[in-house]
Batch of 2 targets.
Target 1
Amino acid sequence: MSQISVQGLSKSFVKNSELINAVENVNFEVEDGEFVCLLGPSGCGKTTILRIIAGLEKPTTGKVLLDKKEINKAGADRGLVFQDFALFPWRTVSKNIEFPLELKKIPKKDREEISKKYIDLFGLEGFENAYPSELSGGMKQRVALARALAAKPKVLLMDEPFGSLDAQTRNNMQKELQNIWIKEKKTVLFVTHSVDEAVYLADRIILLSARPAKVRKIYEVTCTRPRIRTSPECSAIRATILSEMESIK
């Protein structure tokens, strides 16, 4: 069953007295429990699409459905993870993870148990009382992911979450995310401009054109999980997508 349905989505806005067409007639579905990557060149409109799905922006035309209900505002049914981590600097690791649970009025004892579960899952043991300023970039992103999942959203929306990390940490975080997704089977829509990242993580890759964003092609990624980056299957689909992206202007 389609959990997210994007239908005829277009978005325009005015910047410096100029009309900008960011997204044009985008249509796609994301199935329950599926990991889908939105892939495209920088500035093509990927983040705009994600923000509309998150309820942070309104489309000019078209609509987005979540479980057959139209999205018109932000909600706790969508967990968000951004590139800049968006952690509260005055809260410890455990208190950052507990924050969305506080908003849901979950009792303190239950919040602490849920926080501990995700601290253990993300390998953050020993850092429960640390503040974001005391953490590396990779650890900050682990906290951001733990916080998003602890709230039990229906879908996880991720906007280039590993883009600011160094190459080795980024690869490690991709591996951790894949392993956690295999366990949790959460519906994920993940924005990236990296073909390697998309092939490593996704069940399907939606390739977008240059701005205004349109769906150019959709690829099924059938490589066995857990993925091996250098496998013949992954290498073949990576080469196919790279060839297609070279023709995007």
Target 2
Amino acid sequence: DLEFRMRPRDFHCPKTALLCLENTHNVCGGTVLPVDYVEEVGRFAKTHKIPLHMDGARIMNAATYLGLPVKDLLRPCDTVMMCISKGLACPMGSLVAGSKDFIYKVSRVRKCLGGGMRQAGIVAAAGLVSLKTIVPRLHEDHENTQRLARGVCLKGNPYVSMDLDTVQTNMAVYDFHDIRRLSPVTFCERLLKVTEREYEDLQQAVTVKMIPISQSKARAVLHNDVNAEDVDAAIVKIRYVIEELCRSAGA
């Protein structure tokens, strides 16, 4: 498949200059690339003399899922980017790693494009805290995501489902099968509201923030600020909303 995607050696075409992987894979719901697959891609890249870059925005989640040091996931890669925000809970920031020459080029390009920040140590300090305190507890986010995914039974539901095999890290993706009757947008908008009837029925006023990631999918992402009690409250809310919307869709 990679051979097929390589640009032909033809002066009419641009050269294939970079091979990029993402781990965990966002669009696939936070699934993890197997180490042997990354190593196979690395061998392919070296054979064709193409640098291999890892979009590792959530690479620490991947390492946590596999139970491996992060360096083992990155051994075939020439460069890597990792977010210290997102799952690592910092207010902002990302890290990039590579050869000394590569980092010099990155710094220069950033400067050419107007990138720069004074007193950036305060951002770095948050990153250090995150690496020491948040990374060791990422497994809790994964456990809470499993709790959320398995807490709402969708078996046999004609409108919405979830592939539990893809729930590996801190994302859960809902699939919608008849978007004319029930769409991800309708679902996500309803989760942000609390009706009077709902409050009477559930005796709780809970909102759940998800986002549509395509015309037929909605995604929930868990993080450091969501605990097991929050998940249990969200499960009650999601069950209620799905039942309500499915009744309306079937009317």
